[in-house]
Amino acid sequence: MHKGGDDVAVSVLTAEGLDVNVDVSVIYHLERGKSAEIHRNVGELYSDVLIKPVSRATVRDLVSTYRSEDLYTTEKRVTLQTTLTEKIRERLEPRGIEIENVLIRDIELPIQVKSSIESKITAEQDAKRMEFVLQKEQKEAERKIVEAGGVAESQKIISASLDDKLLTWFWIKSLEKQNSVIYVPIGESGLPLFKDIDAVKTQPKPVSNDS
C-alpha cells in the first residue's frame, strides 16, 4: 500500500487533524492447513478483501493518535511500526494469515508542516550548541579563577617566608656558576663582599721608578 505500487498510500488524519500519507507494506503468508479454508470462505482475492482493509483501518486508528511532529522522528516511527505489526497480527492470524512483518516505508507530511518541524529542530540544535559553548566558557572561567587563587596563595606563602637572609642566600647560590667570583662575609649584619679573581689577575703590575 504505497505510491508506485499496486495500491495507493493510506491517507490518515493525525491527532491535530492534518492529512498525511503513509506508505505501508505487509509481509505475510497463509497458515499451513488453512489456505483451502481461506480460498473457500474469502476467495482468491483475500488480499483485497481481508488483508488490505484490515491493515488500512489499523493504520488509520493508530496514526490518528500521533501528532505530525511525532511522525517525523525516527524513534516514534519505530514505535508506531512495532505497534502496527502487533495489532494487524492480532486481527489476521485468527483468520489463518500469518503476519511476518509490517513496514512503514514512508510518511508524507504537508510541506508547510515539514518545513515548520525542520525549522524547529534546527532552532533546538542551535540552542543546544550555544548552551554547550556557554557551559564550556563558564568552566574555563571557573578554571582560571581557581588557577588565579592558587597563584595568589602561592605568592602569599612565598612572601611570608622571605627575609633578607634568605634572599642573600639565594643570591650567593646563584654565584656558584661564576668560578672567578668569591664571597667574603663582612660582619654579622653587613653586606657580603664579592671579589672578581680574574679582575685581580689581569690588573697591571705597578711600574717601578728605580732605574
What does this entry look like structurally?
The protein is 55% helix and 17% strand. It is α+β, with helices and mostly antiparallel strands. Among the domains are: 100 residues, Tetrahydropterin Synthase, Chain A (2-Layer Sandwich); 38 residues, no CATH class. The chain has a three-stranded antiparallel sheet. Helix 2 crosses helix 4. It is rod-shaped, with a radius of gyration of 45 Å.
Distance between the termini: 133 Å
Order of helices and strands: EEHHHHEHHEEH
**CATH first level of the domain at 10-109: which class?**
Alpha Beta
* Major sheet details: 3 strands, antiparallel
Could you please say which CATH topology of the domain at 10-109 applies here?
A: Tetrahydropterin Synthase, Chain A
CATH superfamily of the domain at 10-109: Band 7 domain
Instruction: Please state the overall shape, judged from the principal axes of the Cα atoms.
Output: rod-shaped
What order do the strands of the largest sheet run in, or round the barrel if closed? 1-2-3
Rg estimate, integer Å: 45 Å
Task: Estimate percent helicity.
Answer: 40-55%
Low-confidence segments, ≥5 residues, pLDDT <50?
Answer: none
Number of strands: 5
Question: How is this fold's topology laid out?
Answer:
Layout lengths: L9 E4 L5 E12 L4 H7 L4 H18 L4 H5 L1 H19 L4 E12 L2 H51 L2 H11 L6 E4 L8 E4 H5 L10
Antiparallel strand pairs: 1-2, 2-3, 4-5
Helix pairs in contact: 2-4
Task: Summarize this structure as a short list of keywords or feature phrases.
single chain, alpha+beta, Tetrahydropterin Synthase, Chain A, three-stranded antiparallel beta sheet, 7 helices, 55% helix
